[in-house]
Amino acid sequence: MSKGFKGTSSTDDNNNNNNNNNGNGVLFKNFFEGWLVRQEHYLDELICANQNFDESSDDDLRELVSRILAHYQQYYEEKSKITERNVFLVFFPPWFTSLEQAFLWIAGFKPGLAFRLVTNSIDDLSEDQIQTLNRLMRETKSQERSLNDELAKIQESIGAPPLLEIARCGGRRSVHGGEQEEEDSNSDSAMAALKSGLEAVVTAADRLRMSTALKVTDVLESAQSVKFLAAAAQLQLRLRSWGL
């Protein structure tokens, strides 16, 4: 006769985790696909505005820029929800193509990419704008290095396996027959610490991505911001189409 209370088996736990991970992934995938459709519509607006600057008032351009920045803010708000549910999913998101995943830096595009887009899409920057953007670029790169260091420290501090390995098993710990409860508890604690640390890093990285875009558009004139945002949307949608 067995003694003591027995919880669910590791197989049941793993199946439940798989179901939760699949459900979370599907929910965000559906949101993301709708978001991309809206992104395409916004790109059409940006291209039209870029081709008809003389017919658009500065207020009209600013309103368009504001709507598109709100569009990106919506993306990060939804992403934060799935990050809280399973942070490992956002490091290797199944809703991205393998090509898109190759460009990821801490679960998203590198914030410093914004400055390359500005350089490649805008040819009428003033000297003051150039100096301000160069300062912002240095600050952004410094924050990127800090986040890289923080991510490395998190993994090193608990001896975590590579993120890809964890993501493939959905953030589950492997449980083998005969493990002692103390070992299970230690493993659970380590995984909880890893998740908490990764969530904080992803949140900080997303905040840096959004704040960089806001700061860049603050420096640019409204017509320049339209060019910048058009270049960003084109890059994202092209990567998407090339990877499909």
SSE arrangement:
Elements: H1 10-51, H2 58-85, H3 87-91, H4 98-102, H5 113-121, H6 127-158, H7 163-168, H8 181-219, H9 222-243
Describe the structure.
The longest helix is centred in the N-terminal third of the chain and has 42 residues. The protein has one domain. The N terminus is likely disordered. The radius of gyration is 22 Å and the shape is globular. It has 9 helices and no strands. The protein is mainly α.
Unreliable spans: 1-13, 172-180
In helices, the fraction of residues equals over 70%
What is the count of helical runs?
9
Shape: globular
Q: Give the CA-CA distance, first to last residue.
A: 56 Å
Rounded to an integer in angstroms, the radius of gyration calculated over CA atoms is: 22 Å
The SSE order reads: HHHHHHHHH
> What structural class is derived from the secondary structure elements?
mainly alpha
Count of distinct strands: 0
Largest sheet: none
Strand content: under 5%
Give the mean pLDDT. Answer: 86
Count of all domains: 1
Coiled coil: 130-157
Domain DOG1: 25-244
Keywords: Coiled coil
GO molecular function, one term: sequence-specific DNA binding
Task: Characterize this entry briefly.
Helix content is 77%, strand content 0%. It contains 9 helices and no strands.
What features would you highlight for this structure?
mainly alpha, disordered N terminus, 9 helices, globular, 244 residues
